[in-house]
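If it is no trouble, can you show me the amino acids of a protein and the tokens describing how it folds?
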Amino acid sequence: MLLSPDEINKSLYPKGWKYAEKKISKSYSFDTYMAGMEFVQKIAVLAEAQNHHPDIIIGWCKVDISISSHDLGGVTTKCVNLALGIDRIFDETHNE
């Protein structure tokens, strides 16, 4: 089931996620390129476990994430849960 923009923003806007064009997105910054790559590897494990895969753009010390349900054409609870899991990974990697 698709979520309304209000439901999405209530859950994710305070955490820095943006909703636009039927997807949620967020950018993460790192001190090194390899730190970003390690972050992406951990996201891949989470995404595979949840069987829900984000679009990822890797740049120099920056990782951009976009999530939507391609099947349903928008953002679902599964998308929000993946976003929150990605935030947890980021928080854990920055507290190591």
Summary: The mean pLDDT is 94. The CA atoms of residues 17 and 26 lie 5 Å apart.
